[in-house]
Amino acid sequence: MVATSKGSTRFMHCLPAFHNRETKVGQEIFEKHGIAEMEVTEEVFESPAGVQFEQAENRMHTIKAVLVSTIGA
C-alpha cells in the first residue's frame, strides 16, 4: 500500500510497534503465533514514510505540558 502511494503516505504509530523478531517480545509472538510482523512490516517501519519517532516525540511534549498544567493548578 505504501509503495503504491508514490511517496504521499506517512506511517504513524504510537509505539511500541512489533515490526520484526529482534526483540524478546517480537520473538515470543513469532514462536507462539508464527507472526513475524504484527502491525507493520520492517520495510515500512524503516522507510522514509515512517514518522513514528517524530509522532512519539510530539506526544511526549504534550504529556509534559499536561503534567505542568495539572501540577501548577
Q: How would you summarize the topology of this molecule?
A:
Layout: H1 24-33, H2 42-45, H3 52-71
Description of the structure:
With 73 residues, this protein is mainly α. The chain has 3 helices and no strands. The radius of gyration is 16 Å and the shape is flat. This is Aspartate/ornithine carbamoyltransferase Asp/Orn-binding domain-containing protein. Reversibly catalyzes the transfer of the carbamoyl group from carbamoyl phosphate (CP) to the N(epsilon) atom of ornithine (ORN) to produce L-citrulline. One of its GO terms (biological process) is citrulline biosynthetic process.
List keywords for this structure.
about 45% helix; 3 helices; about 70 residues; mainly alpha
What is the structure about, briefly put?
The chain is mainly α. It contains three helices and no strands. One of its GO terms (biological process) is L-arginine biosynthetic process via ornithine.
Characterize the overall form.
flat
Radius of gyration: 16 Å
Regions with little confidence, pLDDT below 50 for 5+ residues: none
Biggest sheet features: none
Q: What class do helices, strands and sheet pairing give?
A: mainly alpha
Helix content: 40-55%
Beta-strand proportion: under 5%
Family: Belongs to the aspartate/ornithine carbamoyltransferase superfamily.
Protein name: Aspartate/ornithine carbamoyltransferase Asp/Orn-binding domain-containing protein
Pfam families: OTCace
InterPro entries: Asp/Orn_carbamoylTrfase, Asp/Orn_carbamoylTrfase_sf, Asp_carbamoyltransf_Asp/Orn-bd
